[in-house]
Amino acid sequence: MMLDATKGDVQRELLEKELESVGIRLNRRKPNIYFKPKKGGGLSYNSTVPLTQCSEKLVQLILHEYKIFNAEVLFREDCSPDEFIDVIVGNRVYMPCLYVYNKVDQISIEEVDRLARQPNSVVISCGMKLNLDYLLEMLWEYLALICIYTKKRGERPDFNDAIIMRRGASVEHVCHRIHRTLASQFKYALVWGTSTKYSPQRVGLTHIMEHEDVIQIVKK
Prior knowledge:
- By secondary structure, the protein is an alpha/beta fold.
- The chain has 6 helices and 13 strands.
- The chain folds into 3 domains: 2-22 and 95-143, P-loop containing nucleotide triphosphate hydrolases (Rossmann fold, 3-Layer(aba) Sandwich); 31-91; 145-219, Ubiquitin-like (UB roll), CATH 3.10.20.
- GO terms for molecular function: GTP binding; GTPase activity.
């Protein structure tokens, strides 16, 4: 989220409120609550942890507001009533957000320090090109991106043309990124890098790649 540092927290609060109203939850994970409507049997309520914000009576009142009279509810963490409502509605989106404050060259050093110390925040100046390298690092981390380098048999790896993948990508995902028919012609792959026990290691389609691995694909 790109923000104007000269506007303090006002712009951020307005944008967060707008996103909250349409069901987008920033830098929060889905509440650990098991909820399943039933056709009969009333309310089955339980919790595996002490609850300080919800009670069985409150849960029942909330369910009745949504015309739900039969359900199984299991709290696995201490959640608020609003979080329980999010689980009932079921259409909330939980996503990470990096707050990027631009124009820090136009505010005091004390304000820059305050903004930089906030969680999930980066301070930059596009005009003066300040802190852009750190922003790039944080974007890679938040987007969970990795670089995969390819290698042809008998040649050196091509470090100038990386394949950008999501963290957790397998050799099969890499094959599809290179060409849609490559996976069907796949025999095995040789991988160099931190994802292997030794280099090169012969792997199959299910092998999970890691950042800056080198791969050589052998076809049938």
